Structure formats: structure tokens, C-alpha cells
Amino acid sequence: AAVFCAIMLVLSQSAQQGLSVSSPSWGMFSLWEGVTRWSIPALFMAWGMEDLEGGKSAGSWKKVLWGLGMLAFWAFLYALAGYLLGGGTLSLGGLGAALAAALRGEVASHLWLLFPLLGLRLVLPVLGRFAAGASRGEIVYILALAFLLAGVLPIWTNFHPNHVLVTLTGRLEIHLVLGWVGYYLAGWFFSHYTIGRLEELILYVLGILGLGLTLWGDRLVGGSRALWYGYTAPGVACTAAAVCVLLRYVLSVSQERARQSKVHHLGEFVVGVYLFHQIWVLVLQRLGVGLDWLPDLVRVPLGALILFLLSIPPAWLLSRLPAVGQRLTQG
């Protein structure tokens, strides 16, 4: 669900380019973007579930190396695809140019999330030890701190730029990374601790309200659209947390081993579906087809569905590569 919505997010962002903000088409694509902003934080929660499970920190340097290799591979693949689809020929010179672009860090725009993921894994030994030894209250404290300082504080700063609280916290130099750490730990928290029915219901309500705040916060409260669409904005964070808890509940109540096996198998390469889908966009553009023929109302969800289905076979094949496959498609 998060990967599919992440593809929708990328398509909605690209569809807005070149359009007037007052046009109905821009409004439609902006709406789709707002509805799917939670998907990126949800992916970081999923990575946190896996990386921090059992307080894992041993071998974290291997995760960093694999993260670098994963980033280099996908950067190289897109550089090579762009070169070949742009009319280049497969040659040592073309391969060298693609490799040089990858080493310079020139990556496709949708691959940006691999950078903060790599940063989180650099500090995985610290986060892993903390998750293994901290009490539930200490975890909640960090999550609350991340929500307040990375989510609520930017909103407060926008409306009260000269407040003493803004000045003091600004001197602490707390950066956006706290937001990603919060999502990383939140994923582990939701998978590790049992949440009561009342707390779960409150999370669902906050998730729905958060989605509304993301979409209409600029009109209801004020501030810019970007302020409420930020990945660490309160509304986006609440919706991501609610979806994460909902998916965990759905999987936990499923008693069918076949269904659980399918979900586990899909998880081995589903991130690769997101990472690969822009290859098909390049191919369709080269063929002169694109997705512009789809009506604006359904271009984002239907286009995402087409790209999602087309990307499953190559992502699955990549995941089957000996030794390295799942490292490239699972994150």
C-alpha cells in the first residue's frame, strides 16, 4: 500500500510541473499529492521495523555498505537507461559515463529517500542499542520529542517567528533528521508494543484528521501549502502512523498462512517496484506514449497502477539475483 501510494505521489508531483496553480488540473494533482504524502514516512517506519527488530545493531556497517551499493546500483541503472533511451549506444564509453554519473551522486529524483535511509543506518548501532534497552516510556518520549520539534515546531515558527521559544530551540540546532529518526523508531515501536483498542481508535481518528489537516491546513489555519505538505508535518505524521498501525492489525489478524506467505514474499521486492517504476516512465516517453492520455481525474491512480504492475516482473527478477538481489529490492 505504501509503495503504491509512493508511486502515486511521484506521479502527482511530476504532473503539476508546468501547470498554473490556479488551473483545475493542478488542483486535482495537488489533491492526489496531499492524499499520498504519508507514504514516504510509512516506508521509513517499515524500514525501522526491520532494522531495529530485536535491537539489532550487529553488522550495521554491512547495512551501510549495502546501502551505498544499493544507491550506486540504482543511480547507475537510471544513468544508463537515460543514456540508452536518449539515443546512446551500448559501449564501454556509455557504461563509463553512467558509472561516473552514479559515483558523482547524480540520481533520479525519486531515489532521494535512499539518502536519509543511509544516514539512519550510519547511526543504527546507537538506535539499535537504544531500542533494545529503552523502556516503553523512553521510546514514547523520543517519539513525542520528534513529533513536537520536527513536526509542530515548524508550524509554530511560521506563525510566531519572533517568539522566545523559537529563538531558544533554534539555538539547539535540531535538524530535520530528528523527524526521520522518529519515523524509524515509530515503526519499531508499533511492531514491538501492543497498543490498546482505545489508543488504536484514537490513532485512526488522528490519522483521518491529519489527512484533512494536510489537505486543507493552509485554508483552515493559514500558512503555505508546503508547510502542511512537509514529510514531518503533524498531519502527515498522524496519517502515516494510523496507516502503519492499521496494516499491522490486518496482518496480525490474518490466520491464513498462504496470505502471510504472499505478503512476506511481496515484501522481498516491493521497494524495488518503487525504485524501478521510473524506468517505465522513461521508456514510455521514448515511445512517445507517456501517461498524458489518461484523464486528469484518474491519471495519478491509474497511471500508478499501470507502472506498479509493469514494475513487478523486473523487480522480482532483480530480487532473484544470487546474494545481492533482495538487498537491491528490499532496502
What's the arrangement of secondary structure elements?
Layout: H1 2-16, H2 24-36, H3 39-51, H4 60-85, H5 92-103, H6 114-122, H7 124-133, H8 136-159, H9 164-171, H10 177-192, H11 197-220, H12 225-229, H13 234-253, H14 257-267, H15 270-286, H16 296-319, H17 325-330
Helix pairs in contact: 1-2, 1-3, 1-15, 1-16, 2-16, 3-10, 3-13, 4-5, 4-6, 4-15, 8-10, 10-13, 11-13, 15-16
How would you describe this structure to a colleague?
The chain is about 75% helix and about 0% strand. It has about 325 residues and is mainly α. The longest helix is centred in the first third of the chain and has 26 residues, at about 60-85. The chain is globular and about 60 Å long. The model has no long low-confidence stretch (mean pLDDT about 85).
Descriptors:
mainly alpha; 0% strand
Beta-strand content bin: under 5%
Number of helices: 17
Give the fraction of residues assigned to helices: over 70%
Please give the number of β-strands. 0
Average pLDDT score = 84
Could you give the distance between the termini? 16 Å
**Backbone structural class:** mainly alpha
Low-confidence stretches: none
The largest pleated sheet is described as: none
Q: What is the H-and-E element order?
A: HHHHHHHHHHHHHHHHH
Principal-axis shape: globular
Cα Rg: 21 Å
